Amino acid sequence: MLHLWGRLSSINVRKVVLCAQVLGVELPRSDAGLAFGVVDTPDFRSNNPNGLVPLLHDGDFTLWESNTIVRYLCAREGKLYPANLHQRFNAERWMDWQQTTLNPAGSPGFKQWIRVAPAQRDAGVIAQSVAATEPLFTMLDTHLSRQAFMAGSALTMADIPIACEVHRWWGLPQPRPPWPHLERWYAGWLAMPASRGVLDLPLS
């Protein structure tokens, strides 16, 4: 039986929940992390020594790292996981880029707006995050001007982490430039019933 540990306020947990909903997989979830605790208990640490969410149980098998869990669920269900080697690693590339490039650029701004009290916010940190993030979304917009989805003409596992990043960045109370192709792509996500309860949530 599948079970997920993690709070929905975490972008990394949202990736896994969104993936499961797109796949049509039932995924019971228990809150963990921040105010919910759990992650510092010996039992949790024995399954994830990092003490982070999400953590997936599939029977006796445990897995951590959000994008890896997305890959696993897609491969397990035989959906959104490209069979063609080149297509698969095209998707893998974008998933790695989300985690190593886009997420670190946007995280400081997100934390200042959402997790820091207004009186303690650092406008300089927000400005640096905007300066780092906007060129990356411009790059995504250019990429999506040439194709419908991140890895080609069909939805794949690569689209899931990017959708969660867009949800987080666009939910911040700040202006942004027009990105028509990215906006078209994200509007497609918002029209999907599977996005409910994930991409329509306020940030916290």
Describe the structure.
- With 204 residues, the chain is an alpha+beta fold.
- The protein has 2 domains: 2-77, Glutaredoxin (3-Layer(aba) Sandwich), CATH 3.40.30.10; 85-195, Glutathione S-transferase Yfyf (Class Pi), Chain A, domain 2 (Up-down Bundle), CATH 1.20.1050.
- The chain contains 7 helices and 4 strands, in the order βαβαββααααα.
- The chain has helices at residues 11-23, 42-47, 66-77, 85-115, 123-144, 159-170, 180-190, and strands at residues 2-5, 29-30, 55-58, 61-64.
- The chain has a 4-stranded mixed beta sheet, with helices on one face.
- Strand 1 (2-5), helix 1 and strand 2 form a beta-alpha-beta unit.
- It starts with a strand and ends in a 14-residue tail after the last helix.
Number of strands: 4
Between the first and last Cα atoms, what is the distance in angstroms?
Answer: 29 Å
Helical amount among residues, as a percent range?
40-55%
Cross-sheet strand order for the largest sheet: 2-1-3-4
Radius of gyration: 17 Å
- Please give the domain count: 2
Name the beta content range: 5-15%
Average pLDDT confidence is: 98
Shape: globular
H and E string = EHEHEEHHHHH
Please state the second-level CATH architecture of the largest domain: Up-down Bundle
Number of helices: 7
Would you identify the regions where 5 or more consecutive residues have pLDDT less than 50? Answer: none
- Give a quick account of the main beta sheet: strands, pairing sense, barrel closure: 4 strands, mixed
| Overall CATH class of the largest domain | Mainly Alpha
> What structural class do helix, strand and pairing data support?
alpha+beta
The CATH topology label of the largest domain is: Glutathione S-transferase Yfyf (Class Pi), Chain A, domain 2
